[in-house]
Amino acid sequence: MTMNPTLVAKHFEGASDVSGIDYFTLEPRPFAVGTVGLDSSDQDVFCFDSVSGIVAYRNGLVLTDALNEVCYQAISDISVLPIFPNLQTDYALRLMLALSQSRRLKTGYRPDYSPLQKSLSLMRPRLVAAAEREIEDYCNTRSFLNSVYARAGLLFMKDGRLNAQSFPGPQAYDQIYRLMVARSVKSVGIAKSGQVLEVVRPYAKTIRKQVGDRPFAIRIEKEHLEIAHPGPRSNPGLQKTLRHGSASAALGGVGAIRYALSISGEELCLVEFNLYDLQHFRSLIRRGCSLEQWAQEMFGPEKRAIHSWDIFGFVTDNDCENLILPTLSEIVYAADTETEIRLYPRALANAHNRVKLRHADLEMTRRQLIVDLAREGITPNMIPVTAEDPHKTDPEIVNQDTDY
Q1: Is 159 left (phi over 0), alpha (psi -120 to 50) or beta?
Q2: How crowded is residue 370: how many other Cβ atoms within 10 Å of its Cβ?
Q3: What is the pLDDT of residues 289-347, one digit of tens each?
Q4: Which residues contact 170 (CB under 8 A, 6 or more apart)?
Q5: Single pTM value for the model
Q6: CA distance 219 to 261
């Protein structure tokens, strides 16, 4: 197959027709109280092989006032986590149980011992670290909502999706965003990448040419979700991404209403709204009714799962005028003041800069680990710094670099 330049050039032109796309321009809107930004990061410290190593992670929360100035921040220390699923069975089991117990104590997860019946997960260390920092995000959110800083009218912004994980679990995640509404704190998740964004990106390029430098938002419809996440048979991630509620399989969290937001240029971010901020679903909090119970009342007892498109029909004009449009405008303002340059809301940008793990941040941790291992008889030359790629041991590759 040869490259067709005319065909490739279409990628840079955008969509030819945006008449069927629901989009609108935005103006910056100052917020009355302030914003909160929650972010976390993880990084490899040592990679011994593809599934074993030592990772580090850190979390941070930043609060800005009505003038978009940072007035409070809580940045955690660096946490270090060893991951060795391919150790001898008894040692690997000890590590797994210790990790599981730590998760349960942090999240209040049900006190059972199911990991004893599960096989060890052979996954990249950073994936395990990502799950750990998600738990820390949950704990930080819970602590914030029960502090004096949780003032009514705040906009809470989480870096990433509002989806749940195995820990703290869908039920805990569902409850904490109900608590967010009870505290009168609006909440959104802001993701900088994802399949849904790639679906609407061609339309965003065309819209940007039409609206100039004004910020705009595109509403994510059912057809966009179906393109990004085809049916459950071809993509098991459908339930995780689009199923909501407190059931064990509802890992989609509470971000059921989504908008692709472009503040400047061709940059896009996905904004997910807390479905309990919608007028229709706020009543479920007062009633103490679960989303699953609501679905059975609304659609019948055979309704077992709630997906994002089940929520679309309950978004009212009042929600658009009093929640969605003002919140998107506040996000634009938070990224477009004298403190920012129209890239990202200041609270999130500041949190990201503080929690990012740079080489200098980890150097002392690495040195201390080398000293500790040396005391156990492991000399520094025995410690691989990075995992070895398969192609490095390929005979043809090796022979090319050999002098005869």
Answers
A1: beta
A2: 15
A3: 999 999 999 998 888 788 899 999 999 999 999 999 999 999 999 998 766 667 789 99
A4: 164, 245, 246, 247, 248, 249, 250, 251, 253
A5: 0.88
A6: 9
Inter-residue contact 78 to 357 (CB < 8 Å): yes
CB of 239 within 8 A of CB of 249? yes
| The residue to which tokens 């500790």 are assigned | 372
* Neighbour count for residue 249 (Cβ, 10 Å): 12
Alpha-carbon dihedral of residues 101, 38, 287, 110, nearest 10 degrees?
0
Closest by alpha carbon to 63, among 163, 176, 141, 167?
141
**Same-domain check for residues 214 and 334:** yes
DSSP structure class, residue 82: E
- 205 with 337, same domain: the answer is yes
User: What type of residue sits at position 164?
Assistant: A
CA distance 354 to 70: 12
Residues 6 or more apart whose Cβ sits within 8 Å of residue 8: none
pLDDT higher than threshold 90 for residue 178: yes
Q: How far apart are CA 337 and CA 125, in angstroms?
A: 39
Q: What is the DSSP letter of 77?
A: P
Question: Are 138 and 173 contacting, i.e. CB atoms less than 8 angstroms apart?
Answer: yes
Q: Is 88 buried (19+), middle (13-18) or exposed (0-12) by CB count in 10 A?
A: exposed
Do 394 and 245 share a structural domain?
Answer: no
Closest CA to 203 of 54, 31, 18: 18
How many structural domains compose the chain? 2
Same domain assignment for residues 387 and 315:
no
| 3-class DSSP assignment, residue 296 | helix
Cβ neighbours around 401 below 10 Å, total: 7
Helices (H), 325-402: 325-334, 346-355, 359-375, 395-400
**Taking the chain, what is the end-to-end CA distance rounded to the nearest angstrom?**
38
Determine the Cα–Cα distance for residues 24 and 117; give it in Å rounded to an integer. Answer: 52
Q: In this structure, what DSSP letter does residue 324 have?
A: I
Tens digit of each residue's pLDDT (9 = 90 or more) over 57-82: 999 999 999 999 999 999 999 999 88
Q: CA nearest 124: which of 58, 50, 60?
A: 50
Identity at 331, one-letter amino acid code? I
Strand-pairing partners, residue 23, are 218
Q: Indicate whether 263 and 386 sit together in one domain.
A: no
